[in-house]
Design a protein that fits this description.
Blueprint (H helix, E strand, L loop, with lengths): L9 E3 L5 E5 L27 H10 L7 E5 L9 H9 L3 E6 L6 H13 L6 E6 L5 H8 L3 H14 L5 E6 L5 H13 L10 E5 L21 H4 E5 L2 E3 L11 E5 L2 E2 L2 E3 L3 H9 L7
Parallel strand pairs: 2-3, 2-8, 3-4, 4-5, 5-6, 6-7
Antiparallel strand pairs: 1-12, 8-9, 9-10, 10-11
Bound molecules: iron/sulfur cluster (SF4).
């Protein structure tokens, strides 16, 4: 009998330049529509232990990483957030992916001090989630009050000499140029001077949407997070932040022993392939 074996496309890591650390899988102070994270229980104690972060970083070759990313749900809710941030800064610059609800003038001043005190000279970069340039539209997606808090955080960070990036999920498929121009005007209204570098437009990723896998392309040539990064969680090492709670994305138990090949077999993977862009890094 002639058996047809259908193999999922796969890619091999080309470099390991980004380490994502999932600080908590479920704790968040917002409940945004279409979030890729399953935020089900705010009281779940699922914070990654600082010892696990310490061990992982000491097992990695120094200077290999370009960025360490602190992700979640909401990473700044981790009770040891400041300690973990200081630890990571010894190894590389750190990108904090946050809804910014915990950032005010006092926190921004403190974080400026943390950055200045790190002897390695690494920097802290903020990726602030905000999904629309109009308050009403944003709050429909992210919850009441989230727009004002994000704007307030942007002002505080700018005041303390940070140059935050706005991470914008494009829920309404607005043309990117139009979206950026509207956000630029919004930022200019509170004297935050921006360039295109201040905006990361992220296509809406849906858990249930399967796109056709392109057949006529070299998968290895695509811009996929799983080619350049791995994600550390309390449950082991995963291919990317999108699959950090999906066993199909599990690559291994720890940083000394994980697979460098990823099989792209989930609905997120098919969307990633058709988008062909890094969703979290540069
Ligand atoms: S979701 Fe995207 S980045 Fe993650 S493993 Fe699939 S293709 Fe790679």
């Amino acid at each position: 009998m002639n058996k047809t074996i259908i193999k999922a496309p796969s890619v091999e890591m080309t470099k390991f330049s980004n380490l994502f650390i999932e600080m908590t899988a479920q704790n968040c102070n917002l409940k945004c529509k279409n979030c890729y994270v399953n935020v089900t229980d705010k009281k779940t104690k699922d914070f990654i232990p600082i010892e696990k972060v310490k061990q992982t970083l000491s097992d990695m070759t120094k200077n290999e990483l370009e960025y360490i990313h602190l992700t979640g749900a909401e990473p700044m809710l981790h009770p040891d957030f400041n300690q973990i941030l200081r630890l990571c800064l010894k190894y590389s610059s750190v990108i904090i992916h946050t809804n910014a609800l915990n950032i005010n003038d006092k926190k921004a001043r403190f974080l400026r001090k943390v950055e200045e005190e790190n002897e390695a000279g690494n920097e802290i970069v903020f990726m602030i989630s905000i999904d629309h340039y109009k308050e009403e539209e944003n709050d429909l997606l992210r919850g009441r009050g989230s727009f004002r808090k994000a704007i307030h955080a942007l002002q505080s960070l700018y005041k303390y000499d940070f140059n935050p990036i706005l991470a914008i999920v494009n829920h309404y498929s607005i043309p990117e140029k139009e979206l950026k121009n509207n956000f630029k005007q919004l930022c200019a209204s509170f004297d935050f001077e921006t360039t295109d570098m201040n905006f990361k437009i992220i296509p809406l990723m849906r858990k249930d949407l399967v796109c056709d896998n392109p057949t006529d392309i070299d998968y290895q040539s695509l811009n996929l997070e799983c080619k350049t990064s791995r994600t550390l969680t309390i449950n082991g090492i995963f291919a990317c932040p999108l699959l950090a709670s999906d066993n199909r994305g599990k690559c291994g138990n720890d940083i000394n022993d994980f697979s460098s090949r990823t099989y792209l077999e989930t609905p997120y993977c098919s969307q990633c392939m058709s988008n062909n862009r890094y969703l979290f890094s540069f």
